[in-house]
Request: fold
Amino acid sequence: MNYQNHKLIKTAFLAFTILVVTGCNFSNSNSSSSGTSGSPTIVGDSVTLPKTDPMDPSRLHNWVKELTNFQPRWAGYPEELKATKWLAQRLSNAGLKTKIEPYKFRQWDLSSWEVNLIDSGQSEPIKSFPIWSSRGGAGSAELVDVGFGTELELLTKNISGKAVVVSGRALLNVFATYPETYHRAAELGAVAMFVTSDAPDNLIRPTSSGQNLLDDNPIPAFQLGAQDLAKLRESSRRGGTVSWKLDAKHIDGTTHDVVAHLPGSGQLKGTILICAHYDAWFSGALDNATGVSGLIGLAEYFAQLPLEKRPRDMIFLGVTGHDAGYPHGGVNNWVTKNKESIGDIELFMNLDHLAAHGTEHVTGTGIIDMLGIVLERPLDEERALFTTKHPALIRTFMPFVLKYTPLTLPLPTVPEITANGDLEGIMGKLGVPSVNLTMATPHYHTEEDTADRIPAKQLSRSVMAHRDFLNKILFMSREQIRSPI
Ligand SMILES: [Zn+2]
Reply:
């Protein structure tokens, strides 16, 4: 989400496009599942739950549908709290000892906002979404187009007292091209920023910046759809102005980790930590109801296994504040509270963005034409397997990745390059072997990241790849997992 090394990601992108796939196996057979168990507990407005096989596609998809009913899942907000209780109940129903752990954090309390373009004496309301945690306030200013918002572009224009317009892109739909622009533009005197993030159909894609200074963020800033941003750029050439009102402030808030323990037989030391963030910008189906669905499916599966097949302890962890709150949420709280246990973790698995139809957003020349053409491709969306530099992780995961989710490129880059500095990024820095098999579609982070875009069978295949990998890792020694060769 925030991100520095564009060159490496461009390389990764090229590698995606030339990836040759052979021997695809789209079997949905459940090679090592333990099958069915007792009847499910039906909670809330669930009507009928599909089969009790934890890997059943419709059962997994049902978790996505249920979680996406709570929206927006912003850290500290009411719908997020409903999601907390919902997730805790699911993990508890699976037979895990589950706790909801509240903690205080600096919450951004967003009340209302509006943006108007004023051109040739006319005022036109523009749909927008504030950049999370940016400074509240109202004002109006002349528009200045600063292209991609690079240092050179900011320096060549007089932006003091002006509202800057930034044509952002999102490499692989994730990595924003403007990580420094907000603070730098403010330093150079800009009074507001308007930016787009490459989503199709004039959709707004909120993103987070790694440099979120919370109360000290300097100016109001807004995300716009690509076509609306183009209007602002055009207007800037005619001396157009923009007005804004952002009623928002930071307050002391409370959010929650959901922590579920599944003790193993004790035959092997150490713990496997499996995590999914359950907050979201809007309905958040791909991001990250699919990961949460995987968390529940895996918890159900491993809880049903006989103890001798679980030689070590497992923890299933749900966290918030990854999207709305980056980089202060994610596993930050859990890591702070469990410092003494970090050395016991044998593997950190982040479940994030597990399944989506393959789609391509065609944006033409790279200039901001943003035609909004989204083509659906056969097969899966491409995935990347991010890991720490522990060769055994890729070696052990890849056979299952190729079996279940073949369009995947391995990237042993954590923590240097990861979209999730507050998840596997932190764990990687702490020396914990970490994996994240992930993807992002053109609708990622937008209001159209909805449950109907998630293919149930593909979701099931993705969860099975994680399950089979975990079944291997559970029996590997610390030395085998961390072996340099
Ligand atoms: Zn995510």
Notes: The pocket of zinc ion is lined by residues 277, 287-288, 352-353 (CB under 6 Å). The chain has two domains: 6-26+45-106+252-482, 108-249. DSSP finds twelve helices and 18 strands in the chain. The chain has a mean pLDDT of 86.
